[in-house]
Structures are given as structure tokens and as C-alpha cells.
Amino acid sequence: MGWLFYGDTSEPIEIEDRALAHLKVVISTKLRRNESFTLSWRHPPENPTGRSTIWLHPSIPLRFVFADPERPELSSEWITTLANSASSTGGITLLAEDLDGNGD
Q: Residue 82 in contact with residue 20, Cβ under 8 Å?
């Protein structure tokens, strides 16, 4: 399980390492181009019900922390899907399998 630290908050967003690695590619590319977008997810069952959305902007600090020291194999198809959603009006929406590692 990896963590995305957003802004000055000390509470990270837990995301499965492989999903986080894909997000890192897309987020880094978008922010390098000075493009802002949203990232949304449903809260996992062990947390309060609901969903969250954050606004990703080049001026807001981000830190990606991976539990596994080895880099996972990346899927260009998944990266393309995430990049396309980041460019949409709804932004990126992580699914439960992205957060817990049960999907691809």
C-alpha cells in the first residue's frame, strides 16, 4: 500500500502501490505542463462513508510514498485512460480496485 501526501496535511491518501505508480506518471506529466485537474475517490469501507476530491495544482506540494521498493510494471493503456480522465471535466476518479489493489 502506498501513500499520496497532498499539500500540508499529515494524513495521506492510501492507494495501492501499482495504482499510485500509474497516477504518479499522469500527475507528474499534467503538473509539468502546468495543467490543474481533480482527483476523486470513494472512501474505503473502514473510513467514514462518502467521497473526496482534491484539486491538483503545480503550486501544491505532493509526495508519493511506495511501500514496495521495486517499481511495478506499468500499463500504457491504464496511463492513457487516467490521462484522458484527468483532461475531462470530471477529472480522475479512482475506483475501489485502484485503492486496494484488487484490479488492474
A: no
Distance between terminal CA atoms of the chain? 15
The closest of 79, 77, 81, 31 to 54, measured between CA atoms, is: 31
**What global pTM score does this model have?**
0.86
| Helix pair angle (17-32, 76-86), 10° resolution | 50
> What span, in angstroms and rounded, lies between the C-alpha atoms of 87 and 29?
12
pLDDT in tens, 38-63: 999 888 777 777 889 999 999 999 99
Instruction: Name the DSSP letter for residue 96.
Output: H
Q: Is residue 81 scored above 60 in pLDDT? A: yes
Dig out the grid coordinates for 6 from the structure.
497532498
